[in-house]
Write a structure and sequence with these properties.
The chain is of the alpha/beta class. It has two domains: 132 residues, 2-Layer Sandwich (ornithine cyclodeaminase, domain 1), CATH 3.30.1780.10; 168 residues, Rossmann fold, CATH 3.40.50.720. It is 35% helix and 24% strand. The chain contains eleven helices and 16 strands. Strands 1, 2, 3, 4, 5, 6, 7 and 16 form an eight-stranded mixed beta sheet that branches. An eight-stranded parallel beta sheet has the order 10-9-8-11-12-15-13-14. A hairpin with a 6-residue loop joins strand 6 and strand 7. The relative contact order is 0.18.
C-alpha cells in the first residue's frame, strides 16, 4: 500500500496542465464509447448543516491502462472563513487483479485539476469558431484559479481576466497571486454579477451557490458559459441556451440547474450533447448564431481515476509516496 501525499501530487502535476487536459479528454472518450463504469455518486448530508456534504464517487476506467477506485470528497464552505480550503479529498485505488487497495492518494489537487481540465477542454472544443481573448471568473477560489491556469494552456490568446466575488478582498488576493504566476495577464474587477457576465464571451462559474440566483440576460450573444458549480443558473435560462454536459443522467440529479430544467419540462430535450459524444464524433454540435452555450459538468469519478492513475504511475517511477507495510492481512498459510 502506498500513500501519495499532497505535496507529491502537486509536484507531479505542476506545469502539466496540457497533459491533464489530454488525460481528461481520453477519459471522456472512453466513457462515451462504453468503456467505463460510473455509478451514481453518493451524497452524505448532515441534518442542520445543509451547506456541508461529503460525496463518494466510485468509478472504473477501461482502455489500455484500466483503473478502478473511489473518491471521497468533502465540501465545507465555512472552512474558507477559517483560512482552510473548502474541499478536501482522498482517492483509493484498487488492484484489478485482486481487488485489494493499493494506493491512497491525496485527492483535493486531483479533484480541482480534473475539474479545471474539463472546463478548459470544453472551452477549447466549443470556441474553435471564435477564440476568446478574455474570460470572466465568477467566484475567486481554488477551482477558478485552476481553471484559469488550464485555460491558458489551451487558449494562449487569453490576455484579459475580469473577476467577480461577493467578497472583493478575495478577488484582489486572487489577482495578486495570478499576477505573479502569469504576469502577462490584465485583471479587472466587476462591481456586479451582471457587469461580470457581460465583460467577455467566456465565463466560468465556480461558486458555492446552493440554489439558482441568475439568468443569462446580461451575457453577450454567442458566449460560452462554463457552469462548473451547477446551481447558479435559473433553469429557464438553460432552456434558451445550447447545453453541453458530461453525462446527462449524472448531471440531472441533486437539484442542479439541469435537474431543475428537466423537472420544469419533463424531459432532457434541452441537452444538445455530451462532451464525450462530441469528442468521438457521435454527435455533431451546430450552434445557432447568437445563442449562448452552457457547459454543465457533474464531475465524473472516472476523471479522478484517470488522473489518479497517472499520478500513481509517476510517483512509482520517481520513488515518491510513503509505503505502508502490513496494511492488509497476510496471505493464508
Amino acid at each position: 500500500m502506498i500513500v501519495i501525499r499532497h505535496a507529491d501530487v502537486e509536484s507531479i502535476l505542476d506545469g502539466r496542465e496540457a497533459d491533464t487536459v489530454r488525460t481528461v479528454a481520453e477519459a471522456y472518450r472512453l466513457h462515451a464509447s462504453g468503456q467505463t463504469a460510473v455509478p451514481h455518486s453518493v451524497f452524505l448530508r448532515f441534518p442542520g448543516h445543509d451547506r456541508d456534504r461529503i460525496i463518494g464517487l466510485p468509478a472504473y476506467r477501461g482502455g489500455d491502462r484500466p483503473v478502478a477506485g473511489m473518491k471521497w470528497i468533502s465540501s465545507f464552505p465555512a472552512n474558507i472563513e477559517s483560512g482552510l480550503q473548502r474541499a478536501s479529498a482522498a482517492i483509493l485505488l484498487n488492484s484489478l487483479a485482486t481487488g485489494h487497495p493499493e494506493a491512497l492518494v491525496e485527492g483535493s489537487v486531483i479533484s480541482a485539476r480534473r475539474t479545471a481540465a474539463s472546463a478548459a477542454l470544453a472551452a477549447e472544443l466549443l470556441t474553435r469558431d471564435r477564440r476568446p481573448t478574455g474570460v470572466a471568473l465568477i467566484g475567486c477560489g481554488v477551482i477558478n484559479h485552476e481553471i484559469l491556469r488550464h485555460l491558458r494552456a489551451v487558449l494562449p490568446e487569453l490576455t484579459d481576466v475580469t473577476l467577480y466575488d461577493r467578497a472583493r478582498p478575495r478577488a484582489e488576493e486572487f489577482a495578486g497571486r495570478l499576477a505573479v504566476e502569469a504576469p502577462g495577464l490584465r485583471f479587472a474587477y466587476a462591481d456586479s454579477l451582471d457587469e461580470a457576465l457581460g465583460a467577455h464571451p467566456l465565463i466560468s462559474f465556480a461558486t458555492t451557490a446552493g440554489v439558482p440566483h441568475t439568468g443569462l440576460d446580461a451575457v453577450r450573444p454567442g458566449s460560452l458559459v462554463l457552469h462548473i458549480s451547477l446551481r447558479d443558473l435559473h433553469p429557464e435560462a438553460l432552456l434558451g441556451a445550447h447545453n453541453i454536459v458530461d453525462d446527462a443522467d449524472h448531471v440531472c440529479r441533486e437539484r442542479t440547474s439541469p435537474h431543475l430544467a428537466e423537472q420544469l419540462t419533463g424531459n432532457r430535450d434541452f441537452i444538445d450533447a455530451s462532451i464525450g459524444q462530441l469528442l468521438i464524433g457521435e454527435r455533431e454540435f451546430v450552434r445557432v448564431p447568437g445563442r449562448t452555450t452552457v457547459f454543465s459538468p457533474f464531475g465524473l469519478g472516472v476523471l479522478d481515476m484517470a488522473l489518479a492513475a497517472s499520478v500513481h504511475d509517476a510517483a512509482a517511477a520517481k520513488g515518491l509516496g510513503v509505503r505502508v507495510d502490513g496494511f492488509l492481512p497476510p496471505p493464508a498459510a
